[in-house]
Design a protein that fits this description.
Elements (H helix, E strand, L loop, with lengths): L9 H10 L3 E3 L6 H4 L13 E4 L3 H13 L4 E4 L15 E4 L6 E4 L4 E4 L5 H9 L3 E2 L10 H6 L7 H4 L6 E7 L5 E4 L5 H7 L8 E8 L1 E2 L3 E10 L3 H14 L4 E9 L14 E9 L3 H12 L6 E2 L2 E4 H6 L10 E9 L4 H9 L10 E6 L21 E9 L5 H15 L18 H8 L3 H11 L15
Parallel strand pairs: 2-4, 3-4
Antiparallel strand pairs: 1-2, 5-6, 6-10, 7-11, 8-9, 8-10, 12-14, 12-15, 12-16, 13-14, 13-18, 17-19, 18-19
Length: 466
Amino acid sequence: MTTVRGPITDEARDDLAAQIQGSVLRPADDGFVDAIRLWNAMIAKSPAVVVQPISVEDVVGAVTFARENALELSIKGGGHNIAGLALSDGGMTIDFSRMREVRVDPSAKKVTVQPGCNLGDVDRATQQHGLATTLGFVSETGVAGLTLGGGFGYLTRQYGWTVDDLLEVEVVTAAGQVVRASREENPDLFWALRGGGGNFGVATEFVFQTHDVGPEVTAGLIVWSAADAEEITDLFRRATEAAPRELTIAMLMRNAPPAPWLAEQHHGKPMIGLVVCHTGDLERAQADLAQLRAFGEPWADLIQAKEYTAQQSMLDATQPKGMHYYWKSEFVPGLSDELLADCRAQFDGMEAPANQIVLFHLEGALAGFAEDDGAVGNRDAAFACVIQSMWAEGGPAEANIAWVRSAWTTLKRHSTGGNYINFQTDDEADDRTAESYRGNLARLAEVKAAYDPENLFRVNRNIRPA
């Protein structure tokens, strides 16, 4: 299929607008700029037309128009994907910002979510009933993109990937049909949607299982000087080895931000910190965290009893919309001495103010599922290793990107062989997508051939038809 058959005429846009109850925006229209604004400002794309549906019928109309006019088609949920997969340059973007309904069924412990929702929308609704589903850890992330790429967060050690909580998806296919996918209905499509990205159709509704969580948890952040890095990395390893599944710990290394909770003399100095979230009994949490909080002389200890929604948004300020982002990720099977030493070495003399390496503990429920239970795979991941860089417009892009690539080259030797598809940047080669899916790639290509043989849905980490 070609990218675009030709310019979209005013007449064609008018025909499309006549079929859509929501909005159809052109580049000169009010609201267009906001509709295409992404979290990662490195991405510069501009679609020829943006459709903002308010119903599944609108989505069918948009997909049919894109197919019949050979337009490149992209889907924007939260616009938080680092590779900018939400936008089509010169084609059509379906922007779900007007479809953000959340419906909670507390008796069945289920939540139904429209594709424009972000994590905060869902957490706020489910927490009214003391429930949560397994989502990420930045509240402005879009639920749809997170889920279709597998998804992980503070509840992963207890319940698995986000897609392990997924019960059902409503999908508009490339042919313009509306279908449901679950373990019982269209199970091959459901399997592919559980981590296979936006390759198979437009998801217009998600149904998730929820769990008893909160509303109060013990969580927060504790940081020390990086002069203690060797001892802290060993402490992190011992703590994660002993941690109950209710406790998730992530370790981060970076230069200290100019945050109000840090004394000014620490700003810009190398630091090492632990982000913790304990969803169990508050007294039990205090006992489980005592060893961490008693170590050394922390620069700051922000661990406290707090609302789960507050923990879910705690890191939002560290990833503001409109900055430039470049990341690499690998899944690792454990915390070897060599891995921890390699992580520490990346910060020798590192002056960038916002570059960091994060080791996020995942080990637990993942291993209770078969490797091919959902396209996401990677059930052998004990930790996600994420190498991150952030800078403002006009900042040292080349130096930051070079640092990420250099650190990744060093750390990749510790990988399971898999990486997180949602953290791939737009310059990743096809072999990185293959590494994400490993043994599940061939089956994904077969499902792609069945549901999208012409590759209409290709603005993503694309799976080509078999």
